[in-house]
Amino acid sequence: MKLTGSSFYHKTKDESTEKRKQADLLDRIEAICLEFPRYGYRRVTAQLKREKLAVNHKKVLRLMRESDLLCRVKPRWVKTTDSKHSFPRYPNLVKDLTISHLNQVWFSDITYVRIRTGFVYLAAILDAFSRRVVGYAISTRLDASLTLEALGMAIAERRPEQGLTHHSDQGVQYASDEYTGKLRCHGFLISMSRRGNPYDNATMESFFKTLKQEEVYLYEYETRGDVLARLPHFLEEVYNHRRLHSALGYVPPDEFEELMLNHEKDELPDRTLLTLSVQS
């Protein structure tokens, strides 16, 4: 019949099976987007691969675009920094610093959450190496007591050694005698961003962007109690424990720290090598 040998062995693709597989994949993508509403296609792809699903980012992007699962959020901004004060200002010590281990550098900053009667303020501290939230405080008052509470939580949880570098903006809440005095009492080095330069504290800017897009903008907070009920859960259970972080090789900060501690015996010198180990 003049047919090639490959025609004899050819098997017709079962279209119903392929459609079912794609439907199952889309269901899982929708479930991930429901749990993490501001995940982009890269993080969704990373989560699917963590679940041992063979899929590439192009297919995930196509399915998310067709299903209208791609997010678009308009940024908002409210001033929380008051740099007009008479307290001493400190140089930026982390600009060219290589960050290689936990409790080497802490980043700190303040943001706001809008409620029906005004604003609630969040002060947060991140470990620069693992991007984990190590301390935070929530208050309707934008003063030094807010930042002191967050610092106290971080110190109590991490118990860092002397020599840690604490980096913040030049706001009065961080430059006050009470706050800088507590830093010196624990042997911390004080580092500050240049005035009006958000790039000097870009890690905190990125973190607050994630917080706003994946939590704050999705819910209508009416009272301080609403904020207290939701934000700690997001910070501790979602951001620290479950949310995949692109800078960490798409693993959550808690998992990254655990992996790092498990690799200490292998003498991995920096996060770059650890990230490569995680991805492999």
Task: Give the SSE layout.
Elements: H1 5-9, H2 15-35, H3 41-50, H4 57-66, E1 105-115, E2 118-127, E3 133-139, H5 144-158, E4 165-168, H6 172-175, H7 177-185, E5 189-192, H8 202-214, H9 224-239, H10 253-262, H11 271-279
Parallel strand pairs: 1-4, 4-5
Antiparallel strand pairs: 1-2, 2-3
Enumerate how many helices there are, as a single number: 11
Which percent range fits the helix content? 40-55%
**Alpha carbon gyration radius:** 23 Å
> Poorly predicted ranges (pLDDT <50, ≥5 residues)?
273-280
**Strand fraction band?**
5-15%
Helix and strand succession?
HHHHEEEHEHHEHHHH
Total number of strands: 5
Major β-sheet strand ordering? 3-2-1-4-5
Q: Mean pLDDT, as a whole number?
A: 82
Sheet with most strands? 5 strands, mixed
Shape: elongated
First CA to last CA: what distance? 51 Å
Explain how this protein is built.
This protein is α/β, with parallel strands linked by helices and 280 residues long. It is 44% helix and 13% strand. It has helices at residues 5-9, 15-35, 41-50, 57-66, 144-158, 172-175, 177-185, 202-214, 224-239, 253-262, 271-279; strands spanning 105-115, 118-127, 133-139, 165-168, 189-192. The protein has a 5-stranded mixed sheet with strand order 3-2-1-4-5, sandwiched between helices. Strand 1 and strand 2 form a beta hairpin. Helix 3 packs across helix 4. The longest helix is centred in the first third of the chain and has 21 residues, at 15-35. The radius of gyration is 23 Å and the shape is elongated.
